[in-house]
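ARCHIVE RECORD
Type: protein–small molecule complex
Small molecule: 2-acetamido-2-deoxy-beta-D-glucopyranose
Source of inputs: curated submission
Record status: active
Notes field left blank by submitter.
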Amino acid sequence: MQNLIAILTLALLATHFTTACQTPTSTSTSRLPSWTLTPTNTTQQFRGLGPVSNDIVWVSGTKGTVLRTNDAGSTWTDVSPHFSLSENASNFEFRDIEAWSANSAVILSIGEGNLSRIYQTRDGGETWKMTFVNQEAAAFYDCMAFEKEIPSHGIARSDPVNGRFRLIETWDSGSHWSILSMNGTLPAALPGEFGFAASGTCIEAAAGRWYIATGGVDPGRIFRSTNPRLGWHLSNSSITGAAAAGVFSVRFRDAKDGIAVGGDFEKPTANKDIASWSCDGGVEWHKAVSFPGGYRSDVAWVPGRKDTAVAVGTSGSDITFDGGRNWTGFGNGTFDAVECINRGVCWASGARGRVAKLVMGDE
Ligand SMILES: *[C@@H]1O[C@H](CO)[C@@H](O)[C@H](O)[C@H]1NC(C)=O
Ligand SMILES: *[C@@H]1O[C@H](CO)[C@@H](O)[C@H](O)[C@H]1NC(C)=O
Ligand SMILES: *[C@@H]1O[C@H](CO)[C@@H](O)[C@H](O)[C@H]1NC(C)=O
Ligand SMILES: *[C@@H]1O[C@H](CO)[C@@H](O)[C@H](O)[C@H]1NC(C)=O
Ligand SMILES: *[C@@H]1O[C@H](CO)[C@@H](O)[C@H](O)[C@H]1NC(C)=O
Ligand SMILES: *[C@@H]1O[C@H](CO)[C@@H](O)[C@H](O)[C@H]1NC(C)=O
Ligand SMILES: *[C@@H]1O[C@H](CO)[C@@H](O)[C@H](O)[C@H]1NC(C)=O
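STRUCTURE (tokenized, with ligand):
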């Protein structure tokens, strides 16, 4: 009887596995999209990208710069925080932004010691309040993520402190943050392992699950958790890691299907083993069949188009129509971050003030 149950269970598991991992049938291999640049009138680099709707988008980046558009990129308004005379805006680089409306957003600045900070606005960027300032010498904050289902719940992620990735958590949309301090349950890092503050997506929240991407070790690794207070599991990503290489971005469209991208930012066109996909919630990661054209710092699923995702990096952009198995290049302009919102609209941002939009035609 027990054997029978075991066999039945195995059969069920096998069926479930096969169903979950069915190869997507790519329907829309046809037209490739193209980016349209918008006039930001600045040369700052924007690694922080926060689209809210088709019209409202925020970007954040170097020299303490934050811009917002309310008209789909036709015009951009400088809504940067004002720094006191003793604090030079040039020292601040906002590598990540999360925005909920034209009024409400939080930004993360990177750096050693107290340069790692989080600011919050409720009035469209007219005023910003510092709601977190790092006091740990070893910490260096890289990225943050908020849940779609519980938008007030977010986690910001730092490089390791005492051998474990440092995480801070907010339950009120970034007004207050506290360190998740249970040593035994935080993700343990290998020597030399860290995260990339390249696009704000080295931590991901999707369908009630959390993911953390790492590099500096080979291969780059991906941690996952259904409850960050209780513990983390980890997997090899199948993406090659090195001093400047590993997993830069991990994104899930639901509880099962995820894509990870990365590579070596010092070798922008090297593309061996720089992208992988998972269909079991990040337990196993499989190498892509054909890779994007080079190092990619960010990837975003396109909502409403089941197996479509867009990846960007300093050497260009790529699209997949089969959930990350095969990638096709479209455009070679430099970008750091990409986000897609409803109705096949994506935004990308990067160096030299580049912020661009693409609208995919009907499927
Ligand atoms: C662009 O920026 C320059 C220098 O900051 C400024 O003088 C000019 O008015 C801006 N142009 C637009 C269209 O915003
Ligand atoms: C701010 O820093 C920049 C770059 O380090 C420097 O060029 C500038 O003079 C500084 N400004 C002030 C007011 O200290
Ligand atoms: C950051 O550190 C500098 C140098 O130690 C100090 O002068 C400044 O007051 C600190 N700022 C904050 C917000 O902690
Ligand atoms: C976590 O570990 C560090 C170093 O091992 C130790 O100093 C610290 O007290 C620990 N914190 C907690 C909350 O256990
Ligand atoms: C992950 O990769 C490391 C380094 O190659 C290897 O030692 C380890 O066994 C791998 N873990 C799994 C679960 O495959
Ligand atoms: C895409 O990847 C699949 C494996 O999932 C492979 O069988 C297929 O031939 C590839 N398609 C193209 C167009 O390269
Ligand atoms: C990028 O694309 C443009 C337009 O297709 C082309 O003229 C240019 O040579 C390309 N640059 C590189 C570095 O491939």
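CURATOR ANNOTATION: Residues 36-359 form a domain with the Methylamine Dehydrogenase; Chain H fold (CATH 2.130.10.10).
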